[in-house]
Amino acid sequence: MTIMFRALVVTKDDDGKTRAAVERIAEDRLPQGDVTVAVEYSALNYKDGLCIGPGGGLVRSYPHVPGIDFAGRVEASDDPRYAAGDKVVLTGWRVGEAHWGGYAEKARVKGDWLVPLPEGLTTRQAMAVGTAGFTAMLAVMALEDHGLTPDAPQPVLVTGASGGVGSVAVAILANLGYRVAAVTGRPENSDYLTGLGATQIVPRADLAETVKRPLESEAWAGCIDAVGGAMLARVLGQIAYGGSVAAVGLAGGAQLPATVIPFLLRGVNLLGIDSVMQARDARLRAWARIAHDLPMKKLEAMVRPAMLEDLPRLGADILQGRVTGRVLVDVA
Ligand code: NDP
Fold first, then answer.
1. Least crowded by CB within 10 Å, which of 75, 210, 234, 238?
2. Residue 148, Cβ density class (10 Å: 0-12 exposed, 13-18 middle, ≥19 buried)
3. What is the CATH number of the domain that holds 112?
4. Which atom of ligand 1 sits closest to the CA of residue 135?
5. Nearest to 263 by CA among 292, 290, 303, 233
6. Looking at the structure, do residues 33 and 113 belong to the same domain, yes or no?
7. Co-location of 85 and 170 in the same domain
8. For the Rhodanese domain, which residue ranges apply (predicted)?
9. The domain containing residue 204 runs over which residues?
């Protein structure tokens, strides 16, 4: 008997338009891989918005099942590291882009791409964190590796603060004892951000202007930047001597209209953060830190629950910067 399961399937018609809808598909259509996972939860990240909708050059072929992250239970495994019943988490490796992803009741992937569910987290919590939160933790770790400590005289800046990366970054930094300045274009989210631990709200407009002076006063001990573009360029000139910016995202643009002066005269570091190809050891370290340093009550305050059917609408919303916190997709 053919086993069927539900999935969000994106198709592309002859004139290049994509369409996403929940369908029942046969298990024999799953891609190659050595571990089959019964997906319990997935999430919505910025990249998912692209893969549910226009593709953004990320999706290799159609029909496609998006979902760049998932957590669930191993159903069958040819990989000796995993056995049926094990709880696992996947982020990155171009799953949900080049390979079918987590917006389905079943996924089949390489064992190398999985990590065991971190001790202390449920599959629901792991996906409330998801790729965005995992990346926020990588950014915090990179800033720490470059000397950031909570006793710095200035606060740490987080841009795109009400989004997924930003929300988790604010909560982790605050819990570690940092003063956190949260940049948002949505003043109505101020209470939400102070609830996560932000000690200062910075209106997006304050950082929207392009660089006029290459160095401004040293306002921030460091920064986690989900926005890029003119805002990142501006922030570089406001970082304290020897401080670092972890560049995570491009919600505001991929250009960097900056000067090199902050690097040369203030020893500022620009640290690139990639979550997709991170080595397994770094992944295990980041997930262990998440379980330890992210208060679960604050994580819960970020959660916006959703079903597969909601994703076409929410995918468009995240591309417009209209999502607050983390959309958690209940797949099972
Ligand atoms: P979200 O959409 O959840 O968050 C982005 C936030 O940025 C928004 O909520 C908004 O916050 C702000 N924003 C949106 N548009 C603009 C704009 N035009 N100018 C300034 N600010 C804007 O996305 P995610 O948190 O999931 O991802 C954030 C970025 O990080 C994306 O670019 C994503 O591709 C990238 N990313 C990179 C990863 C990596 O491995 N390097 C992994 C995960 C994500 P507010 O309303 O508060 O201003």
1. 210
2. buried
3. 3.90.180.10
4. 42
5. 233
6. yes
7. no
8. 142-190
9. 129-272
Query: How far, rounded to the nearest angstrom, does the alpha carbon of residue 225 sit from its chain's CA centroid?
Result: 12
Given 253, 272, 291, which residue is the final one in a domain?
272
Tell me whether 0.95 is exceeded by the ipTM.
yes
Residues in the chain: 332
Measure the CA–CA gap between 162 and 165, rounded to whole angstroms.
8
With CA atoms as reference, report the closest residue to 92 among 45, 23, 39: 45
* Crossing angle of helices 123-145 and 280-293, rounded to 10°: 100
220: domain CATH number? 3.40.50.720
Query: Residue 326: CB within 6 Å of ligand 1?
Result: no
Going by alpha carbons, the residue nearest to atom 18 of ligand 1 is 252
Do 156 and 245 reside in the same domain of the chain? yes
pTM beyond 0.90, yes or no: yes
- Which ligand 1 atom lies nearest to the CA of residue 276? 40
Question: Residue-wise pLDDT tens for the chain (332 aa)?
Answer: 789 999 999 999 988 899 999 999 999 999 999 999 999 999 999 999 999 998 878 998 999 999 999 999 999 999 999 999 999 999 999 999 999 999 999 999 999 999 999 999 999 999 999 999 999 999 999 999 999 999 999 999 999 999 999 999 999 999 999 999 999 999 999 999 999 999 999 999 999 887 779 999 999 999 999 999 999 999 999 999 999 999 999 999 999 999 999 999 999 999 999 999 999 999 999 999 999 999 999 999 999 999 999 999 999 999 999 999 999 999 98
